[in-house]
Amino acid sequence: MDIRELRTFIAIAQAGNITRAAEELHISQPALSRQIIKMENELGCKLLERGGHGISLTNAGHLLLNRARELSDLLDKTETELKTPDVASGEVSIACSETRATLAIAHVAKRLELTHPDIRFKFRSESSDDVTEHLSRGIVDFGIAVGPARTDDYHAIKLPDTDRWGALVPADDDLAAAASLGPQDLIDRPLIMPEKILAQQRICDWMGCDLTRLDVRATYNLLYTASLLVRAHVGAALCLDGIVAPSPENSLAFIPLAPSLTSHVELIWSRSHRLSPAGQAFLDAAAAYLDEDREQALQ
Questions:
Q1: Chain-centroid distance, C-alpha 206
Q2: Residue pLDDT, tens place only, 155-167
Q3: 125-173 per-position pLDDT tens digit
Q4: Can you tell me the distance from the alpha carbon of 254 to that of 178, in angstroms, rounded to the nearest whole number?
Q5: 263 with 162: CB under 8 angstroms?
Q6: What residue stretches are annotated with the HTH lysR-type domain (predicted)?
Q7: Which residues, other chains included, contact 292 with Cβ-Cβ below 8 Å and sequence gap of 6+?
Q8: Average of pLDDT values for 277-291?
Q9: Could you give the domains of the chain?
Q10: Where is 277: in which H helix or E strand?
Q11: Which one, of 251, 207, 248, lies nearest residue 227 by Cα?
């Protein structure tokens, strides 16, 4: 199996239909079907379920799609870097945990645009675990991680913002008018928790109880989905401030925790992967920007 076949599989999955994919790829539908059968025979598993309304991926198909996308992105990135090995141009990829501290990196990207107009950015919103996994596999150049990274695996620069924890509740909930919430306000409430174990442990330490004591109705890795559960009154989502903005349109309210619970945020990159010239230019710009921010804070 080669990269061309993997990219063909990506096109089929995106089209959701063999005939439509064949038209987009400018090959015949029978030839495309034979190629899929060949891949399934090579891998020894079924990749697609064919139905009257198109195709759907099997579990093996979903796994192959994820890996095919990663390999395709990595090949594109490698080709760009090899074509201009000593020039700060091409793509800088950044995997971001959900945090408003990403705004500082957005300012760095804007500043770098003025001095290196040939650099482009690829931002990916991911859970903290996915951020570190994709860094370790070389799929992205940098990560924005909430909480301390493993110092033996990653370099890290602390970002200026500190994220505070709170509860996202429906605007008509009896907790919505509170100035802050303590453990006693939440311990018997239906809750929506972050899926990351370390985040759950921090919340439980703050609550002063084990996870089994809490009424956890759901977990989430990205807060947008959790916010929809909150709007449906499934429970209160324990989350970081500034990710989903409460408004009359979404009928949500954010109430900070008291005693305060906070997390710091880091820009991290792998110790085992060498940065491209574009990546190094971004890192230099980030370090300069953050130094200026710290100096301004001291004035």
A1: 26
A2: 999 998 889 999 9
A3: 988 888 988 898 888 999 999 977 676 889 999 998 889 999 999 999 9
A4: 10
A5: yes
A6: 1-58
A7: none
A8: 93
A9: 3-68 (1.10.10.10), 87-161+264-298 (3.40.190.10), 162-262 (3.40.190.10)
A10: helix 277-298
A11: 251
